[in-house]
Amino acid sequence: MRLRFMISGFAFAMALALGGGLRAEDVAEQLSARPPSPIASQKTDGLKGGTADHTKFQALKGPFETGSDVTKACLTCHTEAGAHFMKSIHWTWDYQNPKTGQRLGKHNVVNNFCTNARGNEGMCAQCHAGYGWKDDTFDFTNQNNIDCLVCHDTTATYYRLPNSRGHDACGVMFEGKQPIDLPKVAQHVGLPGRQNCGACHYNGGGGDGVKHGDLDSTLNAPPKALDVHMSPEGGNFACTKCHVSDKHMVSGSRYDMIARDEKGPGQPGARRDVATCESCHSAKPHDKPSLIGWQLDTHAERIACQTCHIPKIARGGVATMVDWDWSTAGKMIDGKGYALEDYKQGDGKERHTYWTIKGDFKWAENFVPSYQWFDGRMIYTTIDTKIDDSKQPVPINAVQGDAADPKSRIWPFKQMHTRLPWDPKLKSLVYNHLWGKDDTAFWGNFDMVKSVAAGMKLENKPFSGEIGFLPTVSNWPITHMVAPSSDAVKCGECHAEKSRLAGLPGLYMPGHSTVRWLDLIGYAMLAATLAGVVLHGLARIVLGKKTHGEA
Amino acid sequence: MTDLSTAAGIPPVKTKRAVMIYSRYERFWHWSQAILIFVLAMSGFAVHGAFSFVKFGTAVTIHSWAAITLIVLWIFTTFWHFTTGQWRQYLPNLAGLAAVIRFYAWGILTGAPHPYSKTLRRKQNALQSLAYLSFMVIIGPALWSTGIVYLAYPLWAHWAVGTIGLPAVAFVHTAAAFMMVTFVIIHIYMTTTGKTVTHYVRTMITGYDTIELTAAEAAYLSEDEPGRLGT
After folding, report:
1. Of the residues A67, A341, B187, B199, which has the fewest C-beta atoms closer than 10 A?
2. Which tens digits make up the pLDDT trace of B175-201?
3. What are the domain boundaries of chain B?
4. Chain B residue with Cα closest to A497
5. Residue A342: which domain range?
6. A348 occurs within a structural domain
7. pTM of the full predicted structure?
8. Domain for residue A536, yes or no?
9. What is the ipTM of this complex?
10. pLDDT tens readout for residues A366-377
11. Check: CATH 1.10.460.10 for B16-228?
């Protein structure tokens, strides 16, 4: 166990907490054994090489004062890109689910990690593909505010910092960064590689692998056993090879999933709307002609590809967080914040098990997912949901689906359990104002009643003034880290008494499901028969009569 | 089959002769079916979860191919039964049933003689034909009909969503499998009840048994089927 005391209060912890997200040197350090595949070498959905050499454009020679100046230069040729991009969720952070009608997106939802981006944009919008969103004054209609480079830099030298400095004590994290050579980056743009998407998507929840369990920095250069598609020894796919896009609208959103794709690949290049396995592999991908292949294709009608082909979560050596207790946040030793590192993950790096600013954590890696029937819909517990806390843990996103519905399949999920701040009187989740330079931000003042009151006031949501801690669970569909077919989950891991799918409703699984009384009668009959013939045989021997069979 | 015993002009003198009563095909059918049923029972109960020494996927593969082989064997055998008229062997003949049951329950222990003698026409005693009849018209069909439906699940899975279709098929298949194993246990034990413990097994291997022939039968065999008469 390592105990770290903070230099000047909790500043050092903040630096650790917040700096890990996007710093290229951190990523490089973690993966020193396997250098990331160069972005230009990764296979993307689009053209390779293209027809233009960006080093030859006068507009990209610079000098550029800010990233926004580079964007202006980009837009002089890519005249429609700004308008297209502004419709994407990467820009709006706002999403209306057409199936459930729920208003989602990072701007609205409450999750059970750092809880809410709303009111914390200065920090959270570090992952917004725009420049300067720190409060409600941000102009979502100004195309010059778009950050083209975070997705299109191929030099791996571009990085982003939080849009506001937060509490004074956090200043340390802005120091010691290499300045970005903007003309160089601007002249070396290309289609996004895994590192570009990963800069944010690996680090959801506040650090490498924390949120998803199937997305972390090991995917920059995964061995084939970790991910057949992204491995340089395998497909070396960039994310966009599957997450195809049209006018900057990227397919494959978790908010509105296709749990069962019956269309399959369609005509070559025809489908721009999905990132499903079936869109390449078809809905009947198993060996033919083969009896088992035939049965497996039938399995695929009810079982997501991921359920068998991603045998375990977080297999690369980077752990994922599975439990967080916010109720213990704010503890001090001698008036100082501190952090404990009591978990050593597969690659040897130690992860925090307690942080004054966040509370207690638990980690896991290389573990079996939880399985649920899923039809593609998730019902979110939002800030407006009146919570029924009689059944705990309360789902942050309740997975919808039913065995009797042919559109539902069994999917793997990573479950995250959190004791989350809530309003026990009004029975609602709360927006917590964590990040800011003011006297209400939790990270700095450690007064949650004050910080929640400030968070709720931003959206004029009612708050009783009381804080409780609600056991919650969130469900993260597992879809990356597809293993080689030889490592797929074996039949006997489900078709057995101790089954991975034990407890799932509506299933008949030979080898697992039995009719108890039939088995009892059956085995009793066999036992009685055996006993009968043994006794009969013994009687023949004992009585010693010569056998008189048929003549 | 002509009734030979009443053929005119031949005195009804009975002689004991070794006669081939199980033809080569019948023995091939019996033993290949025995092996397949053993393989099916082992792999089937492995699929059912009773054993774990064989992997589930392997058990399914073995079970499926053994089942397909057995179905092919049965198609040939059904053809054989009807072309040779041997299907009549299974016609229930309840006369003497009580005597046979009494013999196996009691008489065999006290050294009483078996109440039934194999004849050329009728190889099976009343209990045997009833047991084999139930094997062939109840247990067998219950197994292969549900087995085929089970194996072809991919063809109807789509319509089975949310129904008890699959569990119902599996239930009947499992119940019939328990009955099949019960039959096999008794069947194997009964093979020890001949003149000697191995007499019946030897008969089923060589095909020959010593039975009483009427003079007409003996004459017919030596005239028309000399190959069936042993030494």
Report:
1. B187
2. 999 999 999 999 999 888 878 888 888
3. 16-228
4. B49
5. 1-28+319-364
6. yes
7. 0.88
8. yes
9. 0.84
10. 999 999 999 999
11. no
